[in-house]
Amino acid sequence: MNGRNSSVVVTGLGIAAPNGLGNRNYWESVREGVSGIGRISHFDPSQYPSRLAGEVKGFVPEEHLTSRIISQTDRMTQLALVGTDCAFADARTQPSEFDEYEMGVVTASSSGGFEFGENELRNLWSQGGQYVSAYQSFAWFYAVNSGQISIRNGMRGPSGVVVSDQAGGLDAIAQARRQIRKGTRMIVSGGIDASLCPWGWTAQLTSRRLSTSSDPNRAYLPFDAEAAGHVPGEGGALVIMEDLASAHERRAPNVYGEISGYAATIDPGAGVESATSLQKAIEQALRNADADPAEIDLVFADAAAVPELDRAEAEALTKVFGVRGVPVTAPKTTTGRLGSGAASLDVATAFLAMRDGVIPPTPNVRIADEYDIDLVSEKRESRAGVRNCLVIARGIGGFNSAMVLRDSNQSSGR
């Protein structure tokens, strides 16, 4: 049933985003360009140069999780556990329907449980070591989401964590794809990050890539003449991945589409400014998917909103697809850049766009004349449908990843 060339499909989505908690709420917001960016409320940001973020609103952990779980987990992990529950519900299946060794978890993380760690450090310095929670030993760790999802759902198959900043969401899904092709029946994958606390905020400011604008509508402007950094956020998406034959065997009601191609490159010396390395990642992902550039109906851009990085991305896209050769969108301008959660949220958004034949917009951005890309600024209905998408993600440190997604009709052979 499984093998190197088997189709790996997504059958469930679990979304936690600043402009919508849950799949339906998020999709309704993003397709209409509704933003979840605003002044930080988790803490007082007045002493910092950057004060805007995308916060997941309406999330009350006590409504979803036991007090025991809450006491030992960071907000990031709480969102991940609830996102996993949402993904299983969307897939219309439960872990109990699988053998525990036939299920795995591969997530991405760019920060770990910063807020939990900050609270325990505060206890250490103000009260002493005896007041530090024993759960600090793992609640801060990069791999904690994979571990807690595994424990909660009894998943004991191939698992792991990927740490490559914003590119991590794609890299984790690609690793999950490899494991399913080796024989694992089902894997939860993707990324959810949450480090909107003073410690996490200070760490993000060191990148010097954060916008200092106080206007939520003009703070995060990729490919705009006024681009001056991004707005961070929290959240992301987790997806249920299965072998297509296995999904058909259990009569999965949702087969959103296939992870049909992936590639990654790195610029360890030049950072992420190289258009050539990003171009190579895109071209290799297309080859891995056995797809021509003309088959791609929509590109989800990395959208750094740093001029030199935007230029590199636009150059890579025009070299692969030609001048304005394919629609390009960056709905993350409504959420902020979500660390490792950003790319997996783009993957989930791409599958929803395929399902409904809708291209979500990049609101508030006025594309500068220097960029020869077809940036979608208002929602478009696609008469021909959205059949194949490319998702691009880049991480600090020179990580470049690209993933090709194919819609469910093609994946199902219909």
Question: Outline of this structure?
Answer:
The protein is α/β, with parallel strands linked by helices and 414 residues long. The chain contains 13 helices and 16 strands. β10 (298-300), α11 and β11 form a beta-alpha-beta unit.
Task: Considering the chains and any ligands shown, give keywords for the structure.
414 residues, Peroxisomal Thiolase, Chain A, domain 1, 13 helices, alpha/beta, 2 domains
Which helices and strands appear, and what pairs or packs with what?
Blueprint: E1 8-17, E2 20-21, H1 23-31, E3 37-39, E4 52-54, H2 67-71, H3 75-91, E5 103-108, H4 114-127, H5 136-139, H6 144-153, E6 160-162, H7 168-181, E7 186-193, H8 198-205, E8 235-243, H9 244-249, E9 257-266, H10 275-288, E10 298-300, H11 307-321, E11 327-329, H12 341-356, E12 358-359, E13 374-375, E14 380-381, E15 388-395, E16 399-407, H13 408-411
Parallel strand pairs: 5-6, 5-7, 10-11, 10-15, 11-13
Antiparallel strand pairs: 1-2, 1-8, 1-9, 3-4, 7-8, 9-16, 12-14, 15-16
CATH class type of the largest domain: Alpha Beta
Q: What's the alpha carbon Rg, rounded to whole Å?
A: 20 Å
Question: What pattern of helices and strands is seen along the backbone?
Answer: EEHEEHHEHHHEHEHEHEHEHEHEEEEEH
Choose one word for the global shape. Answer: globular
Structural class: alpha/beta
Number of domains: 2
CATH homologous superfamily (4th level) name of the largest domain: Thiolase/Chalcone synthase
Show unreliable segments.
Answer: none
Q: Quickly count the helices.
A: 13
Q: Examine the coordinates and then state which fold CATH places here, giving the name of the CATH topology of the largest domain.
A: Peroxisomal Thiolase, Chain A, domain 1
- Main sheet specs: 12 strands, mixed
Q: Helix amount, in percent?
A: 25-40%
Number of DSSP strands? 16
The CATH architecture category of the largest domain equals 3-Layer(aba) Sandwich
Mean of pLDDT: 94
Beta-strand percentage range: 15-25%
Distance between the termini: 19 Å
